[in-house]
Amino acid sequence: MHPHQLWCAMPTEPDLSVPDDDTSVMLVREISAHIRSGSLDRAEAILRSRLAEQPRFAFGQLLLGMIYTRGKRYDEAVEACERALEINPRLAPAPLQIGRIQFEQDDHAGARRQVDRALDMDPNLAGGQLMLAALALEDDEVEAAEAALSEVLEIRPRHIAARLMLAEIYVDDGRIRKALRLLKAVVKDRPESFIARLRLGRVQAADRRYKAAAKTFQAAAASAARPARLHVLAGDALRCLGREADAGEAYQQALTHQPSLEPALYGLADTQIARGELQAAQQTLLGLLQTHPRAHAVFQRQGLIYAQQGFFEQAIRAFRAALRDDDSLIRRDPVLAELLAPGVDLATATAQVAERIRDLLLPRFAIPDRQTRQRQRDFALHFRQMMPRNHPIPANEQAA
């Protein structure tokens, strides 16, 4: 979730508020729902119909700018926001929306000017403080970001985006318990928030609270439009608890939604190997091997199967194939290369390598640092820009 994708607080003064007649309120809610779901053409058609009747509906012009922003029609979005300001020069969310557009275009200086302009109009505009926090984090000014987020929560104590961003800061600083308390509060207030549950589960798992993490991922999967990867995460957490049967069921659930999902197939094979269901594991791996004939991850698991069957020569051959196609294993455990060198005792080498491979294949939950998350966000934004408009991502996954 990134601040420029979130709805901001609406102004509170009478001359700045959203129109309070029932028709306008219903329109704003309808348009907002269409924007969040990605139905931009429908939202634009409804709004243009209203603006044809009431061209000086300032907030309508602002909503049009938001629609254009979501559709990456930035020039038209800025023009719509400027029209809103011509109608109502004190409509603070309008310059804030222009600032968001400039933020998306990496014009941080321009975004800061627009945010300051919005806050001059309305110092209690929570979205303005939220954007200040986002800009501060871009410059790695963590204290300034935390101060801005505190301002947001003074204005709106239950602001979901502010609390999620603050939780990220706590995690980065090692304040895990504080982050967990905040994330649990967000989930309690907004149980429908996909990103809040996902983040809570990841932090719980990284803090080795695997039982709680599994429950969190399962709850998130229950309401997600695409729950397969959440079932995989639940399975990974259950494996960390040694609950191989329950983990296998979670991976099977993932595969009912997405039959070719590789993490689910590998996870299922791992649970089958751990439970001695070697023939079933071979069948699970067979499809993967057909589509990925040089898949080192398949060779690793085949080596484990051969080792359990007592076929030491085949096991060593499979382990060597895995190392040949993926040198990251050796970087993670340099001793593997020595154990698999020519002339080793097959039985001893197989046992030792199998033990190390099993350890390497155990799920691990790590919290990426801020720089890694920034790279991930940049990639996600690039991916979104490349997607056709007629294939919108479901609303509960846009934030993720």
UniProtKB/TrEMBL annotation:
It holds the Pfam family TPR_1. InterPro entries: CellSynth/LPSAsmb/PSIAsmb, SecYEG/CpoB_TPR, TPR-like_helical_dom_sf, TPR_rpt. PROSITE patterns: TPR. Residues 162-259 form the Ancillary SecYEG translocon subunit/Cell division coordinator CpoB TPR domain. TPR repeats lie at residues 58-91, 92-125, 296-329. Keywords: Repeat, TPR repeat. This is Ancillary SecYEG translocon subunit/Cell division coordinator CpoB TPR domain-containing protein. The lineage of its organism: Bacteria, Pseudomonadati, Pseudomonadota, Gammaproteobacteria, Chromatiales.
